From TrEMBL:
Assembly and oligomerization: Single-chain monomer with multiple functions.
Species, as recorded: Acidithiobacillus thiooxidans (Thiobacillus thiooxidans)
Protein name, UniProt field: DNA-directed DNA polymerase
Catalytic reactions on record: DNA(n) + a 2'-deoxyribonucleoside 5'-triphosphate = DNA(n+1) + diphosphate
GO biological process terms held by the UniProt record: DNA-templated DNA replication; double-strand break repair
Any GO molecular function: DNA binding
Source taxonomy: Bacteria, Pseudomonadati, Pseudomonadota, Acidithiobacillia, Acidithiobacillales
Swiss-Prot/TrEMBL keywords: DNA replication
Length: 655
């Protein structure tokens, strides 16, 4: 930013730690350190518009604080996030309690696991005998020789093991081995399990030791992680130590136990907050489309004439159907009424045109552009781009008609299948699996509440069995429009589900058909980039690759400009989660100081508290209500309810 805004390239010569270890530091060191401070204020001053004539060196004459306060008044997103910096300091200073004895018990157990698994690995593969001491060494890392030996062992037993591009070293991490099917390969499954178990035990045990060292150095023997705003989305980061990366192992989290007699640990975690935010963003997209149809503009940019004409043609059909007698409009996929609805007829027309364009694209792809001459190849890519644009607009038109038709049938101004899931208080992964199998959660669970709803959901979960895992993977992987190849790798690496490319494509299509409003949100975003930027890329002949820039706005009004569609969707969603948790902390500090004084950690969508025993249950329930209320300020304008559950125990537990 210094180079861009100030035209000053900041020096890097003294960046490394060894430059700061001499007994005497020079004036050069002082100027280097001072430069970071000065440039930070100069950048802020430029961003606040205080240097219209470009004179950042006159810093002492600039009323930065006054300008900053004015900016906070003019920009709601700045006013929202700025107080959070101060909100976090007391939480950081209070710190998390740390049970040293539990830490020692946990580490001792993990050391025993490492020794046992090292012996088992050698028993399963005698060729690893020379490395038994290294495997069992608590403090040793993975040497290049050990990595090579383990890789060769897996290969010898018939497993294809990937290698790195630069050094051709074997990729023997848990996810890399799971990706190539180690978990399901009878020849290497035991070897894989032993290796992964050893690594996890060593990693979590060393992490526990690290946390223990921080507690040991702390005057109050608690840990005081540096909570702060790190990622661009506004999410918090944690360091020294990273208390957001505590493993979900019960024995590890049991180290978080109060050192105050009678106190309890309360964790309040939002349920599926990213998907709830996604449902709300999808509803917001529908309202944006209607507004753009009327004004001809979106994000301050005029829509292309043909695209605006498309939107207005669809809206004309919608208006006619709104005036039609009740019962004319049918849910998409249902049988049209005798007279037929205008939207239904339009949807059939667009669907037919889309199939024609897709067939033209399939025919075009039968030709390899590498076999063409320069002129013909140029024509090929021109045709490809035109067809791709037409197909995207065709997909958008079909989805928009589908969503509007369902909204009319439901009698609502906007529509979301995902919102319906949350309104009915359903388990989202169960509901998704049912939808992907062509079953209607609304019909199955409609009218059920409380214990009756819970009982029926349990029965359906049991009936679905392992199939529910597929719905869960789709929910977690496809919300931000992951493409087929990436989704296939994601399912294999993280969940040990090995679909073929064709199966993955079918599942992705099935999920988008289950939640067409999410597809619509993605297509609307895709069709409306803010600009196109060229990013250095050595793999391209030109040395650059083109990336679309999107405007990602949280439900709290904060705006970001990420590169690429995935980030264009994710930033608004993840940023909304950040807005909600920031709202929670601020609300507690201003209106509930007794609860705020109990906050000890924040982990993404979860808050952790240390509560006095005599008030623990009542305060835990109150915290759940407050957190739901804060989330609903962002979600309920779009009809999506929040849900969170407090988990209260002697130690930190997950609900």
């Amino acid at each position: 930013m210094s180079a861009i805004l100030l035209n000053v390239v900041m020096p890097k010569e003294l960046q490394k730690p060894e430059n700061w270890t001499p007994f005497y530091l020079t004036r050069e060191h002082y100027q280097y350190a001072l430069g970071d401070v000065i440039r930070t204020y100069q950048i802020l001053a430029v961003l606040l518009g205080l240097f219209p004539e470009g004179d950042p060196d006159r810093l002492e004459y600039v009323p930065i604080l006054k300008a900053y306060k004015k900016a906070c008044q003019e920009h709601p997103e700045l006013a929202r996030q700025e107080p959070q910096v101060l909100d976090l300091i007391p939480i950081r200073e209070k710190g998390m309690p740390h049970d040293v004895e539990q830490m020692h018990r946990f580490v001792a157990g993990q050391k025993q696991v490492v020794a046992e698994q090292a012996a088992l690995l050698v028993q399963l593969e005698p060729d690893l005998q020379p490395f038994e001491a290294d495997l069992a060494d608590w403090d040793a890392g993975i040497s290049a020789k050990l990595k090579e030996a383990l890789g060769q062992t897996f290969v010898k037993h018939g497993l294809y093991v990937q290698t790195t591009d630069k050094t051709s070293a074997y990729k023997i991490g848990e996810k890399d081995l799971r990706l190539v099917g180690a978990e399901d390969n009878a020849e290497v499954k035991d070897l894989y399990t032993a290796w992964v178990t050893l690594n996890k035990a060593k990693k979590t045990g060393k992490m526990a030791e690290e946390v223990g060292e921080f507690a040991k150095r702390s005057p109050d023997h608690r840990i005081h992680p540096l909570l702060g705003h790190g990622p661009a989305t506004g999410r918090l980061s944690s360091a020294e130590p990273n208390a957001q990366q505590y493993p979900s192992l019960a024995d590890f989290r049991a180290m978080v136990a109060s050192d105050k007699p009678g106190y309890k640990i309360c964790a309040v975690d939002y349920s599926a907050l990213d998907m709830r935010s996604g449902a709300a963003l999808a509803i917001r997209a529908q309202r944006e489309i209607l507004a753009a149809t009327e004004t001809g503009f979106h994000n301050g940019i005029a829509l292309e004439g043909p695209f605006l004409k498309l939107l207005r043609t669809i809206d004309t059909a919608r208006q006619l159907d709104l005036k039609a007698p009740q019962g004319v409009s049918q849910p998409w996929g249902g049988s049209p009424s005798p007279t037929g609805s205008n939207l239904t007829r339009l949807g059939l027309k667009y669907s037919s045109l889309l199939k024609t364009k897709e067939a033209e694209m399939a025919t075009l792809r039968e030709t390899d552009p590498k076999d063409l001459g320069k002129t013909e190849r140029s024509k090929y890519w021109d045709t490809y781009r035109l067809l791709k644009g037409s197909i995207t607009k065709g997909q958008f038109a079909c989805r928009w008609v589908e969503v509007l038709t369902n909204a009319l049938a439901e009698g609502t101004a906007d529509w979301s299948a995902l919102r319906n899931v949350f309104r009915m208080n359903l388990d989202v992964h169960t509901a998704t699996t049912l939808r992907m199998r062509g079953r209607s959660p609304e019909k199955l669970f409609g009218g059920l509440t409380g214990a009756e709803l819970e009982d029926v959901q349990k029965k359906v979960k049991h009936e679905l069995g392992d199939a529910r895992k597929g719905g869960k993977v789709a929910n977690l992987g496809l919300l931000y429009y992951m493409q087929v190849k990436g989704f296939q790798t994601y399912a294999a690496k993280l969940f040990n589900i090995h679909w073929t490319f064709e199966e993955t494509a079918e599942i992705r299509t099935s999920w988008l058909n289950s939640y067409p409003e999410i597809d619509l949100w993605a297509l609307w975003t895709m069709l409306n980039p803010i600009s196109k930027e060229y990013i250095p890329d050595g793999s391209k002949r030109s040395g650059f690759r083109a990336e679309d820039v999107y405007k990602a706005e949280t439900l709290g009004g904060r705006v970001m400009y990420p590169l690429g569609l995935n980030a264009g969707l994710a930033y608004g969603d993840q940023g909304t989660g950040a807005d909600i948790l920031g709202e929670v902390v601020h609300e507690l500090r201003i209106n509930y100081p007794h609860l705020y004084a109990c906050a000890i950690n924040q982990v993404h969508d979860e808050m952790v508290f240390e509560l006095p025993g005599e008030h623990a249950e009542a305060w835990a329930n109150q915290l759940g209500e407050i957190m739901d209320e804060c989330a609903n300020r962002f979600l309920m304008p779009y009809g999506v309810p929040s849900a969170c559950t407090p988990a209260l125990a002697d130690v930190w537990v997950k609900d």
